Amino acid sequence: MSTEPDLRLTTAAGLETYLASTRYASTSIETVSGGHTGFLYRVVLKEPLETGEKTVIVKHTLEYAAQSIIDIANGGTPGPGRITLNVERMDFEHEALELVNSNPELSTIVRVPRVHTYDPHTHTLIMSDVAPCRLLSSVLQEADDELVSRIGRALGEFMGKFHKWTSLPEQAAARKRFLENTTSREDVLRIRWQLALAAAKKYHVERAWMEDMYLAGMQDGQSGTVICMADFWFDNILVSTQHDLAIWIVDWETTRSARPELDVAHFATAAYSLVHVHRPIPLMREFTKAYKAHMDLDETSLGTHAGRDMLSFGVVMPWIRHRDESIKQPIAQLGVELLEAAHTGDEQALRKNPVLADIQQMSLLRQALRTRASRSNIRPEESPPPKKSYAKSIKSVASVKTLAASLASFYTSKVPGSVGTSSPKRRRSPRSELGKPPFASKNPELKWVDGVEACDGPMVSGVSTVRTLDERVSLVVHHFGEPGERGVVFYGATSVSGQVRLVASKPDPIESIEVWVTLKSSCTFSSSEPNALELRATLYRNSGPLEPGTYVFPFIFDPFPESVVVRQEEKKNVTGRPLARVLLPRRVGFIRVLSLWF
């Protein structure tokens, strides 16, 4: 191949000449969409490769972006000049693809394109063509929850393993190398922060401390504990469902050493912005579950990265970019709330933010399981008990005899043909009294019962349910249930929050919009029973007509009470004490399904 840079590689005709004397000589070349910072082509080969491939993808870069990301942020309007980017970023994409392909244990579903050849003089990469496939953003808008869950698990497993693998001591040289990607570490990171600051100003959510956070973020980018893809969002992920599920992650030129939260936050930003205008999907829940089997995340760092990306990219995602400003404003608001929570160290605000709800909920679950395991002295299955601990349990002759007798009894009762074998007697299972509260005739007191454990950790609502009342009005409720579940689920001491979304195509004489929450006190729901608690919020009140447009009315209620009075449901009440006061627990126990009207 030519050793001189060729500006004609920015055109299909120039590329055809460049490839003419190589094994990649073409019969036709077409431009591939999506190459924002490089020039991307699909080449139909004159002769198939040894692998049987008849097409390849060619990517070429120069010292500027093919399409300015600032142009994208401006809705496609050209900005003042092109962005200068170090042309050596293509070297890092080549090395990143080779690195991932060197470890086939990362995933059997998620892959990256295979490199055929790389010309470092012209910064031209020739790689495998993974077509036919579709952008993840398109697939998610049509897929059912089962497919979405499979995609989330596969991507979470891949990225968790990749981050874990590249954090190991034996990958120190690779981390050092990718820290040299100054285009990603400095230029692209600076653009992200500048776009975030500009969006904060545009949507009137700027804060005085943001400039300091920007400078701290740039300093933080000078190091890293893992190797990050650093551009991990939906349109860099291609999906094929023609046969078995296959996923490819492309566009690795910004790969650099960084905190793992960089990749996860960017992915979460894309996920939330899509759900913001689409139906709730289990993508992030399944992604996080699979990811956290391999890697943990720092809450504050995650909040910082996600807050910045919600402001810089959340408002310009392809499915958001051309929508009304009333759709973008809540995204920007959530972004600044994340940054503020990270800035002040407000862990509760970080956990309540819906952008990170699924991630934080899985973190709390893992923490609870670890705490319970440590309290119960449970060790991992693969770890044998310490010899000293085991020796203590059989340190006396008497204990050894007791153990032997127990084993003999088990053997003779279970092994056919052994002496003493007999069929065990059938006994009626005893009725458990575990968790049964003390009942009273009136004014019951709240008392702890056996089997109930206090848990003061905050709950995070990780599911959003959308109920469409008609073509104009829909209700979004954030709660603790499962996707697709009927009704909405809450726990004691948690709050109901959500949005009322209204589309007015013409002046609409709406006088008020209200949200009602009612709570029943019995163990079973009955519409005829009086409400134990009733909450109401007025979101809009006006005597004049509502002007045409799209409106979003957010709401959040005060937390529910810690406990309620319930009536025992036994058919025969021989005690004359039908009432008891029980907790509405934060994590386990009784779940109340609430109905909402407005």
UniProtKB/TrEMBL annotation:
Organism superkingdom: Eukaryota
Question: Which residue ranges does the record assign to the Aminoglycoside phosphotransferase domain?
Answer: 86-269
SUPFAM superfamilies, alphabetized:
Protein kinase-like (PK-like) (SSF56112)
Q: Where is this region: Disordered?
A: 371-392, 415-440
Q: Can you name this protein?
A: TBC1 domain family member 2A [Mus musculus]
Organism per entry = Rhizoctonia solani
Q: What are the top taxonomic ranks of the organism? A: Eukaryota, Fungi, Dikarya, Basidiomycota, Agaricomycotina
